[in-house]
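Possible regression after last week's pipeline update?

I re-ran a chain I had predicted before the update to compare outputs. Posting the input and the new output here so someone can diff against the archived version. Not blocking, just want to make sure nothing changed silently.
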Amino acid sequence: MALNHLRLLCPLLCQSLGRQVRSPFMATARVPVLCPNTTRFPAACTRLYATKKAKAKAKAQSAKMNINSALVEDIISLNEVKEDMTAVFNALKDDFTRNLSIRTSPGALDHIVVTTQDGKFPLNQLGQISMKSSQSIMVNMSSFPEATAAATRALKESSMNLNPEVDGTIIKVPIPKVTREHRENLAKMAKQLSNKAKDSLRKVRSNAVTQVKKAKEEHSEDTIRLIEKQIQQMSDNISVDIDKQLAAKTKELLG
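New output (post-update):
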């Protein structure tokens, strides 16, 4: 009988003792005093332990990434790869500006490349380009008369649907009417130029990956795989930019 009364009084004594010796920390954290036959741990402690464990794991992963990043420059310069890929995109934008203009203007002829015996030159370096009227452009080749035939040929072979006429050292370029067919032809050329740019982009990516694979014997597979993944991501980003540029140009050309 006495033993039974002692068992009933034990929890009450534990609670009373806990209220008397509870510290400010215990009051704040609300950590209960463990009594006999109790095996539960405070939930707050469990969460604290889990948080510390997660932070430690994240810190370890971050350190691993930093180590791999430090090895990258020993294998390949990702900045140079990015510059090469960006150069492909910029070249496409230049092609769109020079060769895919709906309205023909003197400035649109500036960068038409003329092939001569002395090399290749922009048309504006060989002749003086001016607007003769609202319907025609004039190219004065008096400074380099020997290049008149080559300049005429370059104008005809451009994608601008031009039909130049030669009068001595003067090349007259009638401004073509903007037809639906002309717009569609320009849109097709835009698609061709973008596909060509993607081919160049793939070549840059392939050369970079080949260079990385040569370092397999000196570096871990994880490091090699990480660098290849970064190169692929850069290539994917530029490819998306090419698609956006094509979409915008097509919309501009077709109206």
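Follow-up from reviewer: compared with the archived run. Helices lie at 2-21, 24-29, 43-75, 78-99, 123-126, 148-157, 180-213, 221-254. Marking as no regression found.
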